[in-house]
Amino acid sequence: MPAKKKPEVLMYKGKPLLRCGDLIYYGNPEDKLFVCFRMEDNEPLDDLTVSRRVIIELKTNEGEKSRLLKQAERDGLYKALDIGTFWLEDALESINQK
Predict the structure, then answer these.
(1) By Cβ atoms counted within 10 A, which residue in 14, 24, 76, 95 is the most buried?
(2) At residue 98, does pLDDT exceed 70?
């Protein structure tokens, strides 16, 4: 019996991107913070679904006790990833400096 193949995880700037429905989680599971992208106003484009509006949330990684630290809205995933990655790197760097 062949061994099960572990699913590949999409990486962006050295951190995993995991999608669950209309949510994308960005960050290492062992870090204290992560970013959540909520896809809103989805529309079809040929054979793809494109999100016109994305809500970005910087949260603490405490399971069900997770707290929202920052929130913003951007048009399109590219702009959302840009601000979300900046927030996460900046916040993790400030935590590590303490």
Answers:
(1) 24
(2) no
